[in-house]
Design goal:
With 248 residues, the chain is α/β, with parallel strands linked by helices. The chain has 2 domains: 2-118, NAD(P)-binding Rossmann-like Domain (Rossmann fold, 3-Layer(aba) Sandwich), CATH 3.40.50; 154-244, Orthogonal Bundle (N-(1-d-carboxylethyl)-l-norvaline Dehydrogenase, domain 2). It is 54% helix and 12% strand. It has a 6-stranded mixed sheet with strand order 1-2-3-4-5-6, sandwiched between helices. β2 (28-32), α2 (36-43) and β3 (51-54) form a beta-alpha-beta unit. α7 (193-209) packs antiparallel against α8. The chain starts with a strand and ends with a helix.
Length: 248
C-alpha cells in the first residue's frame, strides 16, 4: 500500500514510483491530500487496475466525480490526524464494496473501519454533518463561557458541569429528537417553541447588554421565529428542521 500526501515534490515522486512499478506490485493507493485538486493530481497518471482509497476532505460531489475513475473508496477520519492507528478511531468509508472488503484488514490498521454504503459521496456528507455538529456545539460552549466570563467565572471552573450536562440531559434530548425527526412529528411535550422564544429574547438582550457578539443567539432565535410563523409554535425545538430544509 502506498500513501500519497499533498501535491508537491513528495507526491510527484510517489506518482513516478507508482507509474514505474510492475502491475500488481501496488494494488492499493491511499491518498490523503490537502484538497481534491491535489488528490486528483496525485492520481492523474495512475493506471486503471489499482484500488484507490481517498481520505481527502471534500464534498460529496467531489467524491462522486473522483469515483468515476473506478475501483474507488472515499473515506473520512472522525478524529484528529494524530489518532490514526488507534483502534478506537472511527474512519467511515463509502463507495465500492469490493474495494472495502478486499482491503478491510489493511484499513483496520488505521482505525475502526465503518462502511456506509456504495454511494461514494456518503462518507464526505457524514464528515461534514459531524463537523457541523462539532462546530455548532463548540460555538455554543465558547459563547456560554464568554457569558459566564463576564461574571468572573473561569471556563475551566464550569467545564465539568457543562460537559456533564451535554453528555446527560442534551444527549437524552437529542435521542428523543432523532425519533421525532424520523417520524416527521414534533410533539411539544414539556417544551415548545412559543415557550422557548421569550427565553431566547432574554438571551439576545443579555448578550448585547454585556457587550458580546450576538450572532449565535440571534441566529437560533431567527430560526425559531420562522418556525413559529410557519405554525410550529406548539411543537418541540426539533421542528426547526422544517425551516432548515427550506431555503430562506
Amino acid at each position: 500500500m502506498d500513501i500519497v500526501i499533498g501535491a508537491g515534490p513528495r507526491a510527484q515522486a510517489l506518482r513516478d514510483a507508482l507509474a514505474a512499478a510492475p502491475a500488481g506490485v501496488h494494488d492499493l493507493v491511499l491518498v490523503c491530500a490537502e484538497d481534491y485538486a491535489a488528490a486528483e493530481a496525485a492520481l492523474a497518471e495512475q493506471p486503471v487496475g489499482r484500488d484507490v482509497v481517498n481520505l481527502t476532505s471534500g464534498t460529496s460531489a467531489q467524491a462522486r466525480e473522483l469515483a468515476a475513475r473506478g475501483r474507488y473508496l472515499d473515506g473520512a477520519l472522525m478524529a484528529h490526524p494524530e489518532h490514526v492507528g488507534d483502534p478506537a478511531t472511527i474512519i467511515v468509508y463509502s463507495g465500492s464494496p469490493e474495494v472495502f472488503e478486499r482491503h478491510r484488514e489493511r484499513l483496520g490498521a488505521l482505525g475502526k473501519a465503518v462502511y456506509l454504503g456504495p454511494d461514494p459521496g456518503t462518507a464526505a456528507l457524514y464528515d461534514l454533518a459531524l463537523l457541523n455538529l462539532a462546530w455548532a456545539t463548540l460555538a455554543g460552549f465558547v459563547q456560554t463561557a464568554a457569558l459566564l466570563g463576564t461574571a468572573g467565572i473561569r471556563a475551566a471552573e464550569v467545564a465539568p458541569m457543562l460537559t456533564g450536562w451535554l453528555a446527560g440531559t442534551i444527549s437524552e434530548v437529542a435521542t428523543d429528537y432523532a425519533g421525532q425527526l424520523d417520524r416527521g412529528r414534533y410533539p411539544g411535550d414539556g417544551e415548545w417553541l412559543e415557550l422557548d422564544a421569550p427565553l431566547m429574547d432574554h438571551l439576545v438582550d443579555t448578550t448585547r447588554e454585556l457587550g458580546l457578539d450576538d450572532t449565535i443567539a440571534t441566529a437560533v432565535r431567527t430560526l425559531t421565529r420562522r418556525a413559529i410563523d410557519a405554525g410550529h409554535g406548539s411543537d418541540s425545538f426539533a421542528s426547526l428542521v422544517e425551516i432548515i430544509r427550506t431555503a430562506a
